[in-house]
Amino acid sequence: MIAAHYPALQIVVPLIAAPLCVLLRRGMLAWLITVAVSWLAFFIAIQLLQQVMASGPISYELGGWAAPWGIEYRIDSVNAFVLLIVTGISAVVAPYARATVDQEIPEERHYLFYSAYLLCLTGLLGIVITGDAFNVFVFLEISSLSSYVLISLGKDRKALTAAYQYLVMGTIGATFFLIGVGLVYAMTGTLNMADIAARLDAVENTRTVLAAFAFITVGLGLKLALFPLHLWLPNAYAYAPSAVTVFLAATATKVAIYTMLRFVFTLFGADFALDVTLLAEFLMALAIVGVFAASITAIFQNNIKRMLAYSSVAQVGYMVLGVSFFSVTGLTGGIVHLFNHAMMKGALFMALGAVFYRLGTVHLDRMRGLGRQMPLTMFAFVIGGFSLIGLPLTVGFISKWYLILAALERGWWPIAALVLLSSLLAVAYVWRVIEVAYFRDPPANHPKVTEAPLSLLVPMWVLVLANIYFGVDTSLTIGVAESAAKSLLGMGG
Amino acid sequence: MDFLVSHYNYWIFIFLMMLGFYVVVARGNLVKKIIGLNIFQASVFLLYISIGKIFGGTAPILIDGNGTDPVIYSNPLPHVLILTAIVVGVATTALGLSLVVRINEAYGTIEEDEISEMDLEP
């Protein structure tokens, strides 16, 4: 039965495809493999989610070694949903990558690019699927190392310094995480997540466990670009190749947030985090300051990719805000925003990638009058922007609705007001682009540009339509997110 | 005092960790930063190995062949884990240094302040 081995195949297929790309040494073949593997992974993720929703969590013993000794892959509604997000984005980014990679990366490095991309996909999926605390670190480093390589392939030389900066901060984050896992192991004598969760209660009030908790949350805070640990993100996203920006912006921070959810809720437990530590208060304060600081910085950026990167920091703030409520509604909002933000940022960065493909720059000045020259691309940007603001009928509205609901549920109406207020800042930075693209004349001294090729438009519009579809029909996203939130808070489901 | 001395390996771990961290933050030379990062990572290896050590413990090998001999042995798992982390550390260092080489080719310097000055010019 092949279906029984889907959890292993989810990781093994991209992992084997990556060296295969290097062996074949042909850019075209490597791309075909990447597309095929991404779609296969997406198919597997859908199957896994259906299995989980139908019959509860799946436990897979790797190599047939029983759980506490061997490595267990454990899939419940939380990570099945995140697997779906990561593979779904990869399934649209892979076809999109071809045209932009042809233009931005020298021909002889294409196969290496796709190989690094597949390794990054493997790492992200591995972090999500595994039920072993140390295994998370290994996959974290696989995805991080390959994403440093991917970012450094950008055309601008600033991509090199951005990748270097990310390497230093990412390594510090991962090492903090490693220290935390080591301390947890010292106290519990196990690395299996379920086992740790069962044994941690007895030693909860020791200083070692508190130190482990602090190291793990700060380390992951660096990886998920929680304000003020976000400094690596804007440059990394702004100067990476277009396809890489789309992929990382839509998946990497989400996976880090998932890891934080898993460690805080499943391993340490919500009660521990609430009673013993000040995590909720810390997260809420940092999330709100982050949303405002990053949104305001975004308004003053002229490089639009950099603007959206700052907006990503702000959106991470919304997700963390949802988590910091420690309630079903709040967590639902945070988890559903993982999905929704992947949709909107994917669409927006794809539109910018198409602009870069035609213009060779994403500077605001050069985008004057682009609404008429690239109507489909810019209209995609407009809808993505509306979603970012949170207008009704888009996914962004759903996320903010749940966040505000969660705030009101606790009676914290100032938080609800701040969420609304911060949306106005999103209006400000999205409007700058719309105004320039639609209400200004194209620069006279530059050659006319035409619409982006179909291979860029189709994946872009798939995500744009997803923005609208999941903004209207929320039964899938909210349903899964709610069940995920309940299982994290230990209420079954 | 006894606590300080008996846990000296942990104090060395903390000292090395802060030392490495300080070098990463305080130095502007990109190669020195990588060296600091290396010290920082190496300190964690020491932490893991300390966790696995038992006084008087031997290597975890069955001596009498049928496993009935009650020998105290060190926990081998942290050693195995840290082998993986060492590999990761080597890969990070290699990648970091190769990025420094590329940065030197593109900018002609590996001093952080000079690079950020050059980045400010359009």
Domain module count of chain B: 1
* Physical arrangement of strands within the biggest beta sheet of chain A: 1-2
CATH class of chain B: Mainly Alpha
- How many E-type strands of chain B? 0
So how many helices of chain B?
A: 5
Question: Helices and strands of chain B: which structural class?
Answer: mainly alpha
Beta-strand residue percentage of chain A: under 5%
End-to-end CA span of chain B = 58 Å
Tell me about this structure.
The complex is a heterodimer of chains A (493) and B (122). With 493 residues, chain A is an all-alpha fold. Chain A has a domain at 278-493. Chain A is 77% helix and 2% strand. Chain A contains 20 helices and two strands. Chain A has helices spanning 6-24, 27-55, 77-104, 110-129, 133-152, 158-188, 193-200, 207-223, 233-239, 242-268, 270-275, 279-299, 304-324, 328-359, 370-373, 375-389, 395-409, 413-439, 454-472, 475-488, and strands at residues 58-61, 72-75. In chain A, strands 1-2 form a two-stranded antiparallel sheet. Chain A is globular, with a radius of gyration of 21 Å. Chain B has helices at 2-6, 8-26, 30-52, 77-107, 112-120. The termini of chain B are far apart. Chain B contains five helices and no strands. By secondary structure, chain B is mainly alpha-helical. In chain B, helix 2 packs antiparallel against helix 3 and helix 3 packs antiparallel against helix 4. Chain B has a single domain (2-120), classed as Helix Hairpins (Orthogonal Bundle). At the A-B interface, helix 5 and helix 6 of A face helix 2, helix 3 and helix 4 of B.
Question: How would you summarize the topology of this molecule?
Answer:
The complex is a heterodimer of chains A (493) and B (122).
Chain A lengths: L5 H19 L2 H29 L2 E4 L10 E4 L1 H28 L5 H20 L3 H20 L5 H31 L4 H8 L6 H17 L9 H7 L2 H27 L1 H6 L3 H21 L4 H21 L3 H32 L10 H4 L1 H15 L5 H15 L3 H27 L14 H19 L2 H14 L5
Antiparallel strand pairs in A: 1-2
Chain B lengths: L1 H5 L1 H19 L3 H23 L24 H31 L4 H9 L2
Helix pairs in contact in B: 2-3, 3-4
